[in-house]
Every structure is written in structure tokens, then in C-alpha cells.
């Protein structure tokens, strides 16, 4: 896929919104509106950006930069209808931009004008050659020029990096035309690349096999591919296949749906290549516009918006999923997450509690509710929800360790250390080398000042698995400190501070270790740094500002004596 990675960079350059510039106090002028739009775009606030750019464009309607910025903002916002006229004006003036080409393409598809769409040249400054090539092939399908369409698909496969994607779309095109045998022949050929092996690719082939009367083969394919993993949509497909029903072909029943799949395919590729949420969003938006019932595109769009900090827009996407859709619970889980990101945890909990009533057989509903409750320090309610999730999860499920680990943390936060340790050890029995569990249990034992040799072994294994985790390295330093191995503790604590420079706990620990080896001035400096990284009067189970202030005032050895703890063997000040 090296060639695709090169194209990702080109796409990013072609679609980039100009950002920077602070928001002006007033934006009545052309320049003010433009700068305000740039600032909003830089903050991913596409609604505000579109408003300001549109205002500026109204004052300077022939300005290419303004037209392109406005078109991009509408595209990112998902307001394709308002972006299309601007893109058409740009095309009429021969102003070329990738965003405008996407919008013009969407407009022609919406009009059903496949003949004109098929005549568009594949330009180096179009969307990108592969998208343009697939769009042309599907447009020819829509224009009923099947031979030309298949020739076009074959021409694109000259690029080795895209063969899998093109074979996948050619197979879909055959299925759209009702030639399921030809479609299955392509799938069976095992084209290079992973498009046919994605979830959507497998579902497409399952539907094609069912159309060919091969339900048993379809069931076998699902069992081999998903290996027991399932969800509501897959369960429905399996039950229909076992009932000997013929599945309809839904992946691309029309040329328009096939064109939507082109944009979704590239959105998925961009996302897999970590090209950036913004660029991926543009493709997902077009897929959603062309096929509003494209659930994967909807969920991807919402997730991308969350990643871009546009949680209100994400919520609007999630809310559009009907309660009878198999993906409803996925959308509601996403909506709850977006609400939590907006600091509306109470509303998120309401959404999740409603899900326990409508989808109470799903462990993920209870575990997500438990996570949210725990974040709000509702420990007992969180424990109850985790327990329900554990009850709904098979004991041999490889993911069950995470439930025991999370419930163990909740028990620990509630002060039930015995129950916490039991859950942590159950998690380790399932996943013996899981670094988070090893670290948490090991650190807990260190804090309780017991089983220190076992704690050291656990934390050393955790560090070996996650050597760049500052918190895990901190745990190793802390167990060395508790064992009186102060010089070794210094090495680990200094490394931990390098990895987590502004964490108050890590800085506080380094101060204690410095004090233990006689580096008292450096210890006081670290304690003062720790104080600077916590909110005024903040007190948690991990860091206590008053205790740190007392250490600065009288030293660690006096504080330990006041607390009735064992004294340190403190070296002379260096």
C-alpha cells in the first residue's frame, strides 16, 4: 500500500483548509469575516466557519480562495446542498479544487446525471486519480454502458497498490447488475489487498452467495471470518441464512449506492492510514449524502466528529439512527460518549440506563455505564453495573479480564481492597502479562506495604511490556523506594518524570526518592513542582497538597515520624 500512502499526502494537501489567525473582535468587514472563518475552521467549528466564509464570499463572489474555503466548510459540515452551487461556479470558472470536484460529483450523482459524470476527465488535480477512476466506472454502470464500465475497472487495476480495492468494486458492480456468478468469481479469485476482507466486503460476499443459493457456504464464510465474534447485525444475517432465506444484495443495489461505497472505501483507507480525521471526514460526508442509510458511514462520520471535538455535530449524527436499527445501541453508546465529552455525564448516564432497558442482554452497555458511573465517583453503582457485565460475559471470553480489572479499580476506590485484589488476580488469571493489571495490582501492594517481592516482580514485568509508560516506570521506582533500594529508585523515577513531566504524583515521588538519597534541595524543588501541577487544595488518594507542603517545611523524615511510619535511612545532604 506504499503508493496509497503517497496519495494520502496528496489528498491532504489538496483538501487542506487554511487555518490560523485569531478570531477578530469584529468581523463585519470582508477581511474580518475571512479571518473569523479561518479561525473557526482551525478549531474545526465548521458551522461557524461556513457562516463567516459565506458572508465574506457574498462581498467578493469571484474570489477563488473564498469559494474554496466556503465549499470546504460546507463539505465538512455535511451541508452538501449548499456547497454544490459554489462548486459548480468554480467549475464554470475553471477553478479546480479537490473539494469542488467532490461536491460537483455529488451533485451530478444526486441528479442521476451519470452520462455527464462519466465524461469528467480524470485530472491530477481532481479528487484523486483512483477515486476519479472508480467514480467514472460506476458512472458508466449508471449510464448503462456496462462494457465501458468493466474496461474502466480493468484500466485502474494497472496500479498494483489499488488492485484489491478495484477488484472489490468491480465485484460489487457485477452484483449490482445482477450477475452474482461473476461477482463471486472475483471474490473467489482472492484479489490482493484487504477491501474484500473487511466486514463490509465479507457481508457483500455473504449476500452474493445467498443470491446464488449457497447459504451453507455463506454461513461457513461468516464462521471462518468472524470466528465466533458477533453483533446484532451479524446475528440477524446468520439466523436468516440458517432459515434458508435468500438475503437481498444491500451493499450496492444501485449505481448511486456503488458510488457512495467508493467514497466510504476511501474514507476507510484514509482512516487506516491515519491521514487525519478532517480529511477522512470529507469522504465520509459524501458517502452519507449519497446514501443516508449507509450506517457504517454514519457511525464513522460521528466518530470522526468526536475526534475533531465537534461533539454536538456527532450527537446529531448518532441521534439520526432509529431505535429499530441493529446499530442503534452502537449509536447510543457513541451519543453517551459525546455527551460525556461535553461534561454532560448525567445525560450520558440517562442514555446508558435507557439502553440497559432496551438492550439489557449486551455486556458492553453495562460496562460503558459502569465506566461513566465510576468517572462520576458513583462507585457502588459502578460496581453493580460491572457485575452485570461480568454476568453477561462468558468466563472464557478473552475480553473478560478488562471487566474484572475495571471492577477492581472501582472496589479499590471504594476502599474494599480485598475485593479489588480478588478482581485483579482474576484478571491476571485470564491475561497473565497484561501490563495495566500487573502495574495496578503491584502498585496497590506497594501502597499497602505488603508482598513487596511479588509486587516488584509484577511491576518489572509490566515495565518490560510497556517500557515507555511513565506511570508504570513510576511504580517500579516506588517499589524500589519501599524496598529501601533508593539509588535504583532514583534511576526509575527520573525516567518516569521524563515520560510524565507534569504529573504531580510522579514529581512528588521523585522528591521523596531524592530526599532518601540525601539530595534534599532537589527533593524540595520536585515537591514544589508537584504542587504547581495540582489544583489549589486538591486532595486525592494519590496526592495530598497539605502533606507535600509539610514535607517542604520540615522534610520527609519528620513527616514520616509524625505519621508513625518507619524512618528512612537518609543519606547526608550532597
Automatic annotation (TrEMBL):
InterPro entries associated with the record: TPR-like_helical_dom_sf, TPR_rpt
The TPR repeat ranges on this chain: 401-434, 470-503
Record bears the keyword Signal: yes
Pfam families linked to this entry: TPR_16, TPR_8
Residue ranges of the TM segments: none
Stretches of the chain forming a coiled coil according to its record: none
Keyword field contains Signal: yes
Keywords tagged on the record: Signal, TPR repeat
Signal peptide positions (record): 1-27
Protein name: Tetratricopeptide (TPR) repeat protein
Organism of this sequence: Sulfitobacter undariae
Amino acid at each position: 500500500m506504499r503508493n496509497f500512502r503517497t496519495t494520502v499526502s496528496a489528498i491532504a494537501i489538496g483538501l487542506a483548509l487554511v487555518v490560523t489567525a485569531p478570531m477578530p473582535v469584529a468581523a463585519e468587514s470582508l477581511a474580518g469575516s475571512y479571518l473569523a472563518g479561518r479561525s473557526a475552521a482551525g478549531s474545526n467549528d465548521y458551522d461557524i466557519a461556513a457562516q463567516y466564509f459565506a458572508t465574506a464570499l457574498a462581498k467578493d463572489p469571484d474570489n477563488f480562495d473564498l469559494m474554496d474555503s466556503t465549499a470546504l466548510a460546507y463539505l465538512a459540515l455535511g451541508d452538501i446542498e449548499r456547497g454544490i452551487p459554489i462548486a459548480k461556479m468554480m467549475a464554470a470558472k475553471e477553478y479546480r479544487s479537490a473539494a469542488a470536484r467532490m461536491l460537483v460529483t455529488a451533485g451530478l450523482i444526486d441528479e442521476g446525471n451519470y452520462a455527464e459524470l462519466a465524461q469528467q476527465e480524470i485530472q491530477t488535480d481532481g479528487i484523486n486519480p483512483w477515486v476519479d477512476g472508480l467514480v467514472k466506472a460506476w458512472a458508466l454502470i449508471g449510464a448503462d454502458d456496462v462494457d465501458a464500465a468493466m474496461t474502466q475497472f480493468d484500466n485502474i487495476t494497472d496500479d498494483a497498490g489499488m488492485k484489491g480495492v478495484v477488484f472489490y468494486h468491480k465485484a460489487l458492480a457485477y452484483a449490482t447488475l445482477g450477475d452474482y456468478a461473476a461477482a463471486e468469481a472475483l471474490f473467489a479469485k482472492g484479489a490482493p489487498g484487504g477491501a474484500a476482507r473487511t466486514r463490509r466486503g465479507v457481508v457483500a460476499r455473504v449476500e452474493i452467495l445467498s443470491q446464488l443459493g449457497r447459504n451453507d457456504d455463506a454461513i461457513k464464510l461468516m464462521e471462518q471470518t468472524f470466528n465466533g465474534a458477533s453483533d446484532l447485525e451479524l446475528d440477524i444475517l446468520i439466523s436468516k441464512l440458517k432459515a434458508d432465506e435468500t438475503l437481498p444484495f444491500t451493499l450496492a443495489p444501485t449505481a448511486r449506492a456503488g458510488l457512495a461505497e467508493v467514497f466510504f472505501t476511501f474514507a476507510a483507507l484514509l482512516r487506516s492510514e491515519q491521514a487525519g480525521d478532517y480529511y477522512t471526514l470529507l469522504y465520509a460526508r459524501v458517502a452519507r449524502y449519497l446514501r443516508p442509510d449507509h450506517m457504517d458511514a454514519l457511525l464513522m462520520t460521528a466518530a470522526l466528529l468526536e475526534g475533531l471535538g465537534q461533539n454536538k455535530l456527532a450527537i446529531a449524527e448518532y441521534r439520526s439512527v432509529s431505535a429499530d436499527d441493529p446499530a442503534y445501541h452502537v449509536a447510543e453508546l457513541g451519543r453517551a460518549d459525546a455527551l460525556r465529552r461535553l461534561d454532560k455525564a448525567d445525560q450520558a448516564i440517562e442514555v446508558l440506563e435507557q439502553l440497559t432497558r432496551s438492550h439489557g442482554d449486551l455486556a458492553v452497555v453495562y460496562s460503558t455505564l459502569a465506566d461513566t458511573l465510576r468517572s462520576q465517583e458513583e462507585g457502588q453503582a459502578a460496581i453493580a453495573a460491572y457485575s452485570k457485565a461480568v454476568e453477561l460475559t462468558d468466563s472464557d471470553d478473552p475480553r473478560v479480564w478488562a471487566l474484572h480489572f475495571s471492577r477492581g479499580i472501582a472496589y479499590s476506590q471504594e476502599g474494599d481492597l480485598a475485593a479489588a485484589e480478588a478482581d485483579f488476580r482474576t484478571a491476571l488469571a485470564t491475561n497473565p502479562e497484561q501490563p495495566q493489571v500487573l502495574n495496578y495490582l503491584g502498585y496497590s501492594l506497594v501502597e499497602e506495604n505488603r508482598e513487596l517481592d511479588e509486587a516488584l516482580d509484577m511491576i518489572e514485568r509490566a515495565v518490560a511490556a510497556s517500557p515507555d509508560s511513565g506511570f508504570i516506570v513510576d511504580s517500579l521506582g516506588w517499589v524500589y523506594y519501599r524496598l529501601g533500594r533508593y539509588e535504583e529508585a532514583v534511576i526509575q523515577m527520573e525516567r518516569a518524570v521524563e515520560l510524565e513531566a507534569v504529573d504531580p504524583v510522579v514529581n512528588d515521588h521523585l522528591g521523596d526518592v531524592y530526599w532518601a538519597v540525601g539530595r534534599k534541595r532537589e527533593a524540595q524543588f520536585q515537591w514544589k513542582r508537584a504542587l504547581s501541577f495540582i489544583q489549589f487544595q486538591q486532595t486525592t488518594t494519590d496526592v495530598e497538597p497539605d502533606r507535600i507542603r509539610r514535607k517542604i517545611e520540615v522534610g520527609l523524615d519528620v513527616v514520616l515520624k509524625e505519621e508513625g511510619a518507619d524512618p528512612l535511612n537518609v543519606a547526608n545532604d550532597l
